[in-house]
Write a structure and sequence with these properties.
2 domains, six-stranded parallel beta sheet, two-stranded antiparallel sheet, DNA polymerase, domain 1, 46% helix, 224 residues, Rossmann fold, alpha/beta, single chain
Length: 224
């Protein structure tokens, strides 16, 4: 098979995390005395590393960022984890991909322990052989670093591995690691910005993603 290993992003690709993330950001900002009543303004926080987002979108300094991240994680661990919805068709997609012989891995900028709990809560963990996420100490937070960890830990061959995500960070992370990618258009990434990073494949819906990946598996099998 050309692609044996599929690496999935989590937020905006498998699940819709809007309520949990925006609620956590509002909580963290409020604890710092910053009011933000419109959750729609916080959607850019979905995808990028959390600390960088607090700097980029609200101009927090290093000390404020450290506190904001701590406040966010406190709420997320208790409440935000479960303010999440699996996109329609994802369970069927993952089941079909494993039946077609793919090995599935998760790579997310979310804390690794949170990602594991989310997969378990929504009964998706059974489809994944490995979960890679960011670390509490912040040493592994950029998407490229998370993808690299997944590749190295599993000794995946880059040419046999495909990254699937909804933001430019997923596509850029794939490029950094020399692997192909699929950009999906149903998440929270800026679509034009994501396309400009040069994904190998593009899908607008979960259904299109399933069709593409199963076709690739069939094409590869036919070529053996």
């Amino acid at each position: 098979m050309r692609y044996k290993n599929l690496i999935f992003d989590l937020d905006g690709t498998l699940t819709d995390p809007k309520n949990g993330i925006t609620g956590g950001i509002q909580h963290a900002l409020s604890k710092l005395g910053i009011g933000e009543n419109d959750p729609e303004r916080l959607l850019p926080y979905i995808g990028p590393p959390l600390a960088r987002s607090f700097q980029d979108f609200h101009g927090l300094n290093d000390e404020q960022v450290e506190k904001a991240v701590r406040f966010y994680r406190e709420r997320f661990a208790a409440v935000g984890l479960y303010e999440n919805e699996v996109y329609e068709g994802i369970g069927d997609l993952l089941r079909s991909l494993t039946e077609h012989g793919y090995t599935l891995t998760l790579a997310t900028s979310k804390l690794e322990q949170f990602a594991v709990k989310i997969l378990e809560h929504f009964h998706l963990a059974e489809y994944f052989s490995f979960v890679a996420g960011s670390t509490m100490d912040g040493l592994r937070s950029e998407k490229g670093d998370v993808i690299r960890h997944a590749l190295q830990a599993n000794r995946y061959i880059p040419s046999q591995t495909l990254m699937i995500g909804d933001t430019k960070y997923d596509i850029e992370g794939a490029l950094e690691n020399g692997i192909d990618s699929v950009a999906v258009g149903y998440g929270y990434g800026d679509w034009q910005e994501t396309l400009q990073t040069g994904p190998t494949y593009v899908c607008g819906t979960v259904g299109e993603l399933k069709e593409l990946l199963i076709r690739l598996a069939a094409d590869d099998t036919d070529g053996i």
